[in-house]
Amino acid sequence: MKVSIVLCSYNGEKYIEEQLDSLRVQTRPADEVMIFDDRSTDRTVKIVQDFIRKYELSGWSIEVNSENKGWKRNFMEGMQKASGDLIFPCDQDDVWMRNKIEKMSEIIEKNNNILLLTANYKSSYVCGEGYRKVSNVFTRRNRDDESVWKIEADKKGLYIMRPGCVMAFRRELLDLCLRYCFDEYPHDALLWRTAVIAGGLYRYEYPCIVWRRHEDNASGQKEHQVNQRLENICYYHEVCDKLIQLAKDKGDQEKLVLLKKIKKFWILRKHFYETRSIRDAVILMTRYLGYYLTLKMALGDLYIVMRNK
Asked: Which of 212, 236, 263 delimits the end of a domain?
């Protein structure tokens, strides 16, 4: 299988060379490394150009966007330009383990059912403070026993349990995703959800990168205000509609029933934010508590809505 890496950069001069070097020394080199810069105003582009020239890296290229697209659009359009059978999204500020491509591509090549394989990460950085565990959904339930297992669709199936930087996917999954995409849909969320509904999402319990998290990351910002939460809930309504259409197109009645129940949860949650209804709160906390990713998220709804009542 031909392997492509798609790296999106923006003002990443501080860390990007370390990331590039970890790609260069892979035990299974990528056939294609495509870097899409979103009009950086620092030295990012020059660092990449000098790096490619220094090591005479054939198959590596950098393209500077004609306009600033934002990280979501940059990744989506960049991945579509990749020619590989297997595509690895790549952030500008992580460090890959030397055998990441070798291990993940070998697993996918041996199992035709895998559309998307996610792995773990070794640790996280917080800018200016060295190593520190980041407390969010991605840090939960990490193992490193190298087991591979299928992730089944369930009532929490819309939540993304791994970041895009630890994903590898078949080109055919991207082609499927493009039929159910919409503006501002993050690439990793689109890939994850499409793969789980299509029955091809697998997890590899191996830390394949050092995942650097810091205050300048483009993704992962939390929203706490009512209007921001409502906007996020409306986004999930559209996500549900697209996935319901996917399940219909595949003739998967079981997943269709599940997705319709999930959509009811998001409809009720939206109504709760709009009306501040005690009745809605009771229903959410009793009938739909299991649809929240965590109890903390459910209690957060109660706190934010009642605080602003």
From this structure: 212
